[in-house]
Amino acid sequence: MLASLLSMADTPLLSIELPGVPKLKSGKVREVFDLGDSLLFVASDRISAFDCIMPNGIPRKGEVLTQISHFWFDRMEALVPNHRLARAADPLPARLAPFAASLAGRSMIVRKARPLAIECVVRGYLAGSAWNEYKRDQTVCGIPLPVGLEESSELPMPLFTPATKAETGHDENIPFEGAVGIVGRETAERVRDLSLKIYGAAREYARQRGILIADTKFEFGLWEDQILLIDEVLTPDSSRFWPADQYRPGRSQPSFDKQFVRDYLLTLDWDKTPPAPALPAAIVERTQAKYLEAFERLTGRPLS
User: Fold this and answer.
1) Which of 21, 52, 135, 233 has a 20 to 30 Å separation from 107 between CA atoms?
2) Is the pLDDT of residue 8 over 60?
3) From CA 64, how far away is CA 284, in angstroms rounded?
């Protein structure tokens, strides 16, 4: 099924300009445009690793990120309101119609919510920085854990481990009381409870589709004093997705995210500072396949 979608003739969309529509921000992947009473999010095909943007991208990656977010927003609306003003199948406003070819499948019109200044991270398995901390201190973000856990072990229960937001570089893990100091206790408790509830529902659904969600991060924003789920949700860029049928504790796991790109880059004599090296065609193709497979597994259909 994936073979028909994979074409190295696909040209990745790396830069997005909409003449006459003000651009507010250009991130590692997403472009944000001002529509006046709303925002337009457009996910490019750029891919970053070690905080560096690769000179070539992954064709259709932006479509995968956007459509997976739409999918989860649809599923989670009963648990938490979100910032979307238009669904995936809704037509573009007339003002954006001239740019339909660039925006198709990779754009989302959203409310101008005010983002909270914390990342809401939920961890269900011991991986990445959490595993490094556990080996050193037998804790994750300062939370004590049982003795004897291995790399990639499932945690006794999912942990809410907030982080600060970094414009450049890495986000920094903080204790829950640190999040309270930034957003206030009532808000911190609310987004903690929502994060755990969303993760729990998503984890059970994804497990049935052959994917383990090892960890993920959510963003929330305020709009008219209401807390909304914003940004991208449960995508391969914001989450660690593992194939359930290959899961083996005691080692790092194969994944559906850009870890494949990171692993390739670690084989190079590169100091992880710009300029980043171009990715070979074979790495691009295999990475694209992983993103598309994640979409198909979660939604039960190919990316149209």
Assistant:
1) 52
2) no
3) 15
Question: Omega before 175 cis (within 30°)?
Answer: no
Q: What is the pLDDT of residue 167?
A: 63
**Where in the chain are the domains?**
115-246
pLDDT digits (tens, 9 = 90+) for 169-207: 567 899 999 999 999 999 999 999 999 999 999 999 999
Superfamily designation of domain 115-246: ATP-grasp fold, B domain (3.30.470.20)
Structural contact between residues 174 and 120, judged by C-beta atoms closer than 8 angstroms: no
In SS3 terms, 78-109 reads as CCCCECECCCCCCCCCHHHHHHHHHHCCCEEE
Residue 177 CA: distances (Å) to CA of 119, 216, 293: 14, 20, 39
Which of 3, 5, 23, 4 is closest to 15 using CA atoms? 23
Q: Is 299 exposed, middle or buried (0-12, 13-18, 19+ CB in 10 A)?
A: middle
Q: Measure the CA–CA gap between 149 and 257, rounded to whole angstroms.
A: 24
pLDDT in tens, 73-88: 999 999 999 999 999 9
* SS3 at position 256: coil
